[in-house]
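Shipment paperwork, digital attachment
Item: protein structure file
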Amino acid sequence: MYDLGLHVVWCSKYRRPVLDGRVAERLRELIEQKADERGWQIMALDVLPDHVHLFVKHDPKASALHVANQFKGLTSRVLREEFPHLKSRLPTLWSSSYFAASVGAVSAKTVQQYIDTQWERPLKEDQEAIP
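Attachment content:
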């Protein structure tokens, strides 16, 4: 028996605000699809214009690196195929880095509240939108 939670955050390349509208909707679908495929449970998910917050329960065989790469790899490939404007202005969709923190049962609610309030935080003014 296990209860492993992971808070994963990854950013678009150059923190470009490209994750909106149809791109954000499709990104959510792909993340949910990958989680279902792996048998992982999404506890919280928030797609902001330039980064993604994900709180996911996963199996003990999956490392933080594996979990992050499963989501980043699939979503980058599919989104760049389906939305050509992402290819034309960005060399890759995602930054090569990510943040991951294990989440215990005591702090799970705190992480979920943090992710749920991301839209309340102001965006940086120097970020350039991609048309």
